[in-house]
Amino acid sequence: MMDFCNLKGKKIIVTGASSGLGRAICIKLSNLGATVFLVARDEDRLVATMKNMNGDGHKLIPFDLNNFNDYEQLFEILKPHGCLSGLVHFAGIRKTLPIRSTKVNDLKEIFNINLFAFMELVRFFSKKNTVHHDGASIVVASSVLSLRGAAALAGYSASKAAVDGAVRCFACELASKKIRVNSIAPGHVETEMNLAVRKQISEEAYEYIIKSHPLGIGRPADVANLVAFLISDEARWITGAVIPIDGGFSARS
Questions:
Q1: Using CA of residue 16, residue 17, residue 19, residue 21, what is the dihedral sign?
Q2: Band of residue 139 on the pLDDT scale cut at 50, 70, 90
Q3: Which of 71, 156, 206, 208 is catalytic?
Q4: How do residues 194-205 score in pLDDT, each as one tens digit?
Q5: Catalytic site residue 71?
Q6: What local confidence, expressed as pLDDT, does residue 193 receive?
Q7: What's the rounded Cα separation, in Å, for the pair 15 and 31?
Q8: How far apart (Å, rounded) are the C-alpha atoms in residues 144 and 245?
Q9: DSSP letters of 184-212?
């Protein structure tokens, strides 16, 4: 009998691997036996992630996801390593901007990484001879803000809602290739990005965030565990889902 969520033999791309949730995901996947291809802009921070991983064969790929003309080269780098079993897109941008201060360039920056990079990665990942013959799993970061509103986060919220729409369509389109596609909608998790957000708001506002999560705020490992399950064969019948992991935030009226 295989261990639950045993990922041995699976080769998985993880974007946003240099920090936060992406880093925690890389560590978790490696602990479960996967070979991980770590993608982010900062090579030094990728090295720091790999130092906390288990196993051999992992590969660092410094890459700027804004360079859409270079995605084919990214997958050429991966080609010698064999067919892929997973794609995890957790690179992301969040900007807290009231609508009066929001410019089109701000929206483009947010959508480029949160949505367009995801769609382009899926386009290349799903090509013939890239995905393992047993099928594959794609997991993307959404947010509870795709389901609930919040002031000054319209651009971020809209990008994540668009991600969820794309997930449902990809799930239908790619099922014939045995590719599952799901998104995870985290609540407030203590990551570097959210610690930076904390510095921008009042102590009272931060206390409100904590109280909005009945089980308290999350840890990166909480999200990494769910990603590992969705990548694993145990989740073989789950696709097109948007799964909140938010300590009860979205359950509140």
A1: positive
A2: very high
A3: 156
A4: 777 777 788 898
A5: no
A6: 73
A7: 18
A8: 8
A9: EEE--B--HHHHHHHHHS-HHHHHHHHHT
